[in-house]
Amino acid sequence: MLTRLFFIALLLTTFGQVNAQRFGYVDTQVIVEKMPEYAQVQSEIEKQAEIWRKEVEEKQVIVQKMRMDFEAEKVLLPEELRQQRLADIDAKEKEVMEFQNKMFGIEGQIYQKRLELMKPIQDKIYAAVEKVARKRRLSFIFDKAGDLVVIFADPTHNYTDIVMEELGIAENNQQQGGKPGTGKKGNN
């Protein structure tokens, strides 16, 4: 009986604390896309990707030429030389595929380059989010653009515009429902 009362008291205390916490959310994808630095990053990544795409294409052209030359000469080649040429072509194809994967694969160079160039932008956004959270005394700020699944988000808890103001990004189109802290209902 005593443990049951203790458990109920603990639940009520916990509920009271959770209920008192203030929260909000931002959409970092919207913020990132409005930042001038993002356009520069995208341009630099695209330039590098184009260089690597051309390199891949050049390597593929070499493999195609090797294959065409082989097809034209294979009837004249002894079996041993034919096998050697096929092995050379296969090795070159494998080299091209490895290069392409190294540059454009899941953890490839283009991915690493994007992470490297985006880090200063993300750091800037996180610093602004933290500053807004401290000013507004928010316990939590969730990222609507992240892996967190948001089924419904009350626009009165949207701090995206305020973070963009903190970053000095002008926003002409206000988010639906106005900005938090402007006297509208649901200001927690």
List the helices and strands and how they pair.
Blueprint (H helix, E strand, L loop, with lengths): L1 H19 L2 E4 L1 H7 L1 H38 L5 H26 L4 H27 L4 E4 L16 H8 L21
Parallel strand pairs: 1-2
Helix pairs in contact: 2-6, 3-4, 3-5, 5-6
Characterise this structure.
The structure is a single chain. The protein is mainly α. It has one domain. It has six helices and two strands; from the N terminus they run H-E-H-H-H-H-E-H. The chain has a two-stranded parallel ribbon. The longest helix has 38 residues, at 36-73.
The portion of residues forming beta strands comes to under 5%
Radius of gyration: 28 Å
| Order of strands in the sheet with most strands | 1-2
The percent of residues in helical segments reads 55-70%
- How would you sum up the global shape? rod-shaped
End-to-end C-alpha gap: 37 Å
| SS class | mainly alpha
What composes the largest sheet?
2 strands, parallel
- Enumerate the spans where pLDDT stays under 50 for 5 or more consecutive residues: 1-7, 172-188
- DSSP summary, beta strand count: 2
Counted by DSSP, the helix tally is: 6
Sequence of secondary-structure elements? HEHHHHEH
The number of domains is 1
Q: Determine the mean pLDDT.
A: 81
